[in-house]
Amino acid sequence: MKLLGLHKLKTAVFISGTGSNLENLIKFSLQKKTPIQIKLIISDNKSAKGLFFSKKYKIQKKIYRFVNKRNDEKMIIEKLKKNNINLICLAGFMKILSKNFIKSFKGKILNIHPSLLPKYKGLNTHLRVIRNKEKFSGCTVHFVTSKLDSGKIVLQKKVKISKKDTPTSLAKRILVQEHLLYPKAIKKLFNNL
Ligand code: GRF
User: Fold this and answer.
1) pTM for this one?
2) Which of 7, 120, 188, 193 is in Cβ range 3.0-4.6 Å of 115 for a Cys bridge?
3) Do the beta carbons of residue 178 and residue 156 sit within 8 Å?
4) Per-residue pLDDT tens for 84-133?
5) Which residues line ligand 1 (CB under 6 A)?
6) Which ligand 1 atom is at minimum distance from the Cα of 111?
7) Which residues are catalytic, by number?
8) Nearest residue to 190 (alpha-carbon basis) of 86, 102, 116
9) Cα–chain-centroid distance for residue 155?
């Protein structure tokens, strides 16, 4: 690992809900040879369960409601720049970031999506894969570009769908893989820096 001599990536995690990926990334950031340091948790939802992890792990949180998207994004950019953030991890973040925002952090925004992209972009992936009688689904870590769920893929993990699967049971199994995949993808990128 090329970590020696290189600073850790100052990371902000964006969430909207439960935040299991957030907690998983926090745990990853606490490992001995981790490449990331989580400086900020950003949420568009003041009731997001995941905000609890801000308190638990003593990480600064900030809520932007996105009522005025342009304004909020401007304030987020300022906040991120002020904290020298050089990696943004979207983890269940439900707002679509503008082209301008993405341009400000070009090549530094990652997302995790619960499907085998480029298949099943967007919402309700588990329901759609089951309805379509797919044999496999999975999860993907990819760069964020202005086209939804379409940026370059960093890593992907396949998960077999069983006949008994419901969207809930499949989501649960895929989430286990998401928690393995996101840190692995970050390590991969860091080693290529
Ligand atoms: C995950 O399945 C992620 O892939 C998707 O939203 C879900 C978020 O879960 N984008 P959590 O909030 O990290 O528990």
Assistant:
1) 0.95
2) 120
3) no
4) 999 999 999 999 999 999 999 999 999 999 999 999 999 999 999 999 99
5) 15, 17-21, 50, 91-92, 112-114, 175, 178
6) 10
7) 113
8) 86
9) 13
Q: What sign does the dihedral 139-144-150-155 (CA atoms) show?
A: negative
In angstroms, rounded to a whole number, what is the distance separating the alpha carbons of residues 150 and 142? 8
**Residue 180's closest CA among 149, 150, 159?**
159
The type of residue at 168 is T
Write the secondary structure of the chain as one string of H (helix), E (strand) and C (coil): CCCCCCCCEEEEEEECCCCHHHHHHHHHHCCCCCCEEEEEEEECCCCCHHHHHHHHHCCEEEECCCCCHHHHHHHHHHHHHHCCCCEEEECCCCCCCCHHHHHHCCCCEEEEECCCCCCCCCCCHHHHHHHCCCCEEEEEEEECCCCCCCCCEEEEEEEECCCCCCHHHHHHHHHHHHHHHHHHHHHHHHHCC
pLDDT band for position 193 (cuts 50, 70, 90): confident
Residues 78 and 76: their CA atoms lie apart, in Å, by 5
Contact, 13 vs 91, CB < 8 A? yes
Show contacts of 56-65: CB within 8 Å, 24+ apart: 57/26, 57/30, 59/26
* Closest protein CA for atom 7 of ligand 1: 92
Q: The tokens of 56 are what? A: 């638990």
What is the per-residue pLDDT for 6? 67
